[in-house]
User: What shape does this take?
Amino acid sequence: MSAIRLVIFDIAGTIIEDHGEVARAFSSALKQHGIPFTAEELKQWKGASKREVIRHFAQRCEPGLDPEGAVATTYETFRGELEVAYKNNLKPIEGAAAAFAWCQEHHIMLATTTGFYRELSTLILRTLRWHQLFQAVISSSDVRQGRPAPYMIFHAIELTGVLDVRQVICVGDTPLDLQAGNNAGLRGVVGVLTGEHDRNSLRSHPHTHIIDSVAELPRLIEREF
Assistant: This one.
């Protein structure tokens, strides 16, 4: 079987630590604009397009509310809250940089896909000095539909010139990450336990492997792929 040529990483909870910044930003923005939600619902939407998450909750509000107007204003509040949070507290997952270096040494290309908007993913990667490591950086704003649709993954594959999905692995910490990888037909769909979801939660969704963190990825590729 063909060797792995591309690994596609989620960002928050997968290659950077997740301390609940996204959930808190959502909670604050939704509350400020009077849009009801529950914490459990927010957890289920983790990894999705952030604008799509806000749209989901806004559309359930009373008929008199303009959904798209509420989405636009709430989204801007969310962005402001999240950017402040990440500027003040941005830490890589232990072993992530070493995993990137191992992939490069073995001629494996790197890409990211994220439910973040492009400006935030760029901010994160530049702050960590990782932006030059990735051959493709894809955000939910680059495609018509975010996870669990496979389109961000396909876009990353397109930009890196890989022709065979059996040469691609995706790595993520949420059920939506796993669903998107499965929908893309990738050879490897790898869950990591460094986000909010535990092993039992991830196991209930299509996957090929579940590992403790991205630090274990090199050993997994050597052993299984």
